[in-house]
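W.,

You were right to be curious about this one. When I first looked at the sequence I had no strong expectations either way, so I just let the prediction run and decided to look at it fresh. Below is the sequence, 144 residues in total, followed by the output.
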Amino acid sequence: MAPEQIGLVIAAFTLPGIFFVPITGVLADRYGRRTIMIPLLFLYGITGAASGLAPDFETLLALRFLTGIAAGSLGSLSIVLVADFFSDRQRAQGFGIRFAIGQLGNATMPTFPCGLAPIVLPHPLLVVTLASPLAPSPPHALAP
């Protein structure tokens, strides 16, 4: 893959957040966090896995765009969940833990799938399928 193509793949994943995070935030406030988050987890897992199996570059870009919609939206909604479930000092600690884990993920996820690919997986992007089992969580887990 050429460097320009790598840049397009990264942009296709990153840019949707600018437009879709506010929309999914409004929808989550209106219809409930769980109602919005569960489909987003499935979208993230399915399109992420499909990205690993994309037959051509254009399909890969489209799938990374859809994965980016889900990833950006889930990231911002996870912050809201910390605010929903914790108060005062626990909230501050929850935000600290959430942001520390988020930054750790941002630092390691670009290399994690590629590092696993030669060992375990035939396609490095299939790692995102690990998100799908999280979607059918217990009803109380994503209340408000």
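Here's what jumped out at me. Residues 39 and 135 are 8 Å apart (CA to CA). And, maybe more interesting for your project: The mean pLDDT is 81.

Coffee later to discuss?

I.
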